[in-house]
Here is the input.
Amino acid sequence: MPNPVIRSSDVTDGAGFWQDDPPTPSSAIFSHHTSTYSRRSTIRPLPVLPAPTPNSTPEIDVSPGTDRSSVESIAPVGLSAVASPPDYRDPNPREEISNGTQPNSSASSAIGKDGSPFNQPITSSPQNPFSSAYEAPNWALIVLHVGLCLIAYPVLMIFVLIAKDRTIFWTRFAVSCGCGVVGFCLGLSLLNLARAFLEAATWATLIHQSHLPEAPGLTLREFAAASQGTSALVAARVLLNRIMFQGTARKQRKAYDSRPWSLYVAYFLLLVLLAASLPFILGRLVEISTRITNQHTDYREVALKGDLSAIDLTRATELLPVFEHPILGWTLSHHEHGQPPQAFSYPWGTDMVYFAEITPSQLQPNGSGFGAFVHAPKNQTNSGVSSTPALSNDIDAGTILRYPRWGARMHCRKVPNAERNLIPKSSLNVTYLFAPRETMVDLFTSFSLQFPKILDKPVNLTTAVKPNDTLPFEVDPNPLTLGVGFNDNGVSHSYYSSPLSMGEDGGGFISLEFVLVRLNTAFTPQGKFLILGNETVSNADGTESRIGYDAALCLELFEPWIVETYNSSTSITTSTRIINKASTTTDSLSGESNIGTTISGVKRQLNSSALWPAYVVAHQNSVNKLVKDNSRDAPYMPSPMVVSYSTGVGANGFTELAESAFIQTRLQMDATNLLPYLAGTGDIVGRSYPDSVLSNARILTIPMVVVLVLVLAFGVLAGIFVPKLPLGVPRRDFELYSWVAAFHGDEVTTEMQRAGVERNMELREIEKRLGNMKFRYVF
Here is the structure.
């Protein structure tokens, strides 16, 4: 007895489900063949019947003697179930459709005669302006893509401007945000344009596989996996399917479709890769440069060796007898500490203030300055200038340091009325230098200092002139305030120092400094002197000359200053400027804040009240080093030191004693040989301002333009040249409307019912029951 067959008269564009032998292609539509589940389902060929005529009613052909309650049909592969065959005929049809279509859903019965949207005529589809082999372009997506490419560069420039002069974190953040936003938008636009390639290739795979003479079509699981999205993984699956499936081979389909569909999938993968890489590529085309800048608002307190400790002062006191000896002329050897620190100066008003550069040892927790007064300072191998930066546990490199330190400045005046105030020789061959009160008042006034009462009285000639000595003329003591005698010892430059303040008030030291220059005129052909001696000197070459005399009165101040020093990470420590004249570090700008902890138990202020032993030793050390460069091999010969007091150069280059030249030389000597010894092992609180690393971003214009042009070209090509489906099948995608066009409601519902799919069933169970159901595209 032949098997019963359910023959459907539904003629729709839908999915055809079958077992093994599909119906012979009759038209470019999906043909639906329903089936029921029997107790023991077997695979049998399904005889092909002629297509039903319009307005016909579904018929069931059953041979005589067959039990209608259990009809055996063709079940999907791998699925077996028991079900009663549904009857697709309506026992009470309510209306006939004039256009000859058998009603098969509620939607079909909703078509009215009143011109509703469901009864509108089908409009002609747009065409591709370049070739009929491609789908009509989606101009909205193309225009959007072009617009995004055009505004990409200006948008990136906005983020580059936002990133200007920011820290490296915020610059990178701004650039990353800009490149990320622009790259995401361009990538999303590329994916939207490329999506049609994958959709076309997926549906083409179904059409190619459905065109096989044997075992045509795909299982629902295979097609669902290939159409679940437009990702690279799905595209790779489609590409693999086209390699593995028999129906997609070129030899199987060359008679009706010879296009390289795998290349379309590969182009989609290329666009996916480009879209995913765009943020990274754009980020590489924005160059970020950094620069180190100093900032003066956020600081940490640090302790450094900038003062003298009690033990330093004790050692200095022990050295006092040595340096107060009138003949010994002892000096401190800098070789015991390494090279002496470099002297530097910065302007303050009309003055130049000189300082000793900080040594690397002063930045070390257990280091010291030169004022330790020891031959080998503990843990110090070289506290002088070093070619490598100092490293410290407390003071980091790459910071600005501010702390109080001692500085020196000086004013000088040439001795006026030299005929009366500079006596070349007395009866005991002593040279006398007298300081007029008016000149001394002028010196103090230049520093805005009050004239000391100790000097505001006539000079005492009894103490000023050596015993049993007589002057060549009578000296009026009333206009004079000081008088000093210099022995006829052949020294070309001599000094007299008189301390006016030994630091008792805590504000520093004040010292009167007299300098006397005596030179043989035979070696100063360009020399100009205040006065010449009366006696002639017989030289070794048989010539005769005289001794020239020049002198100046000076006032030198040693005061505390706040100096800014840069502790570099790549070079030596260098002072950069004077902050203010003070003994304690305070805010120089509004808004300064301590970002660290406050140090307690450490001195914060420089105070000179107890430093006088160190000052005396250091002062005499500097003067003695000046005097030692005096060319005493012959009387009153020029030396490099004395020539530096003038504006000339060379052995015979002395011109005349110039106040500015002497001040510069003397202060440089004091900054090298005096000021370093006012800082030993005593700690003082300073401030450390860490550097700020600021960044700027710059777009590499040419590479950026090239990339944007390529993105534009790839997107436009993807939007215009979407291949049409084989055999004139209209365009299909992965959206709901394509599934509505492929499946009608009763077809899907019927197969789900036969598979035992219920409304509230889990998705994994639905996939298990429907996954192996096979369908094909019917032409």
Q: What stands out?
A: The mean pLDDT is 79. Residues 139-291+696-729 form one domain. The two ends are 32 Å apart (CA to CA).
